[in-house]
Write the structure tokens for this entry.
Amino acid sequence: MRKQILLFLLLSLLCSYAVSQTSPVKPMKRSTTEHHYAYTKDAEEKEIKTLTEYHIVRYDRDGLIESELHYDAADVLMAEVKYEYDDYGNCLSSTASTTNNVNPDNVIREQWKYVWQKGTAADTFFLVEEAQYISNQPIPQMKLTFTYQSDHIIEEGVYFEGSLTKRTVYTNDSMGHHIASNIFTVDEKWEKRSVTTYNETERTSEEIFYDAKDKVVGKTVTKYDQLKNPLEVILSKMKNGKVTEQTTMHTVYDEAGNMMEEEYQISDGSSSVLHKIKQSYSYNQQNDIIEIIYFDSDKKVGSIEYEIEYYR
């Protein structure tokens, strides 16, 4: 009898071990509540934090968004967004419906179409169309179309209410970088263009923009880190060869590649800064974002706090 009990316990142990080896733990689902706050100060310069709205976002086990619920500060449901995917995780559509009394029948539906074709490294899906429908209109209000060569976009079309309004043709180098773009109007008149150069050693790029008279009207210079994350972006508006307005963006990342801080400085082209805005980010141990704080000229003006719940 004792041997039978020991044998039973041994078999039970082996069975439980086998189950643990053949039944991996499924990934957790996730629900995130995003609380949006505004900051002001009272007469005594004390900070006042006020909830303006909050969103509840639900994710499936693959990290894909299933739905969004948008509430105002009084807990009134303002909008609901639902998503649909194919078997490969490509987002096929999102439907946003408002539930308030301002425009109760307004429904915005976005749809995406993909094709499976040969890429440089392997066959994969490519996004070929993105359309936005308003309410029950059969024709999309806005639509974008994309044409590829290997892995890279070579043409983009912009449609409004079914009619082509703009077409952009791209030229790529052997690395797949966009080195030139030409924009044409609906009657195929050349409207403007840009030319981009890259310095792989210094990890920089420079894009120069030209108007319909082929005069330089702007320039963007971007510096990257080793992971090709943009560290500094300088956008300049130009006239007669001089900078009339300049926006400089600085970005800081942590060791995991998470964005920690973004700062925008706007100037008139001189060394003096006219305006500065900044946003900082915080993450948990799972690298989920848990807070964004917004600053305007070093004054805290808003934040988003994320409350994350994991469940089976």
Residues 1-23 have pLDDT under 50 and may be disordered. Residues 27-42+49-102 form one domain. The chain has three domains: 27-42+49-102, 106-188, 197-291.
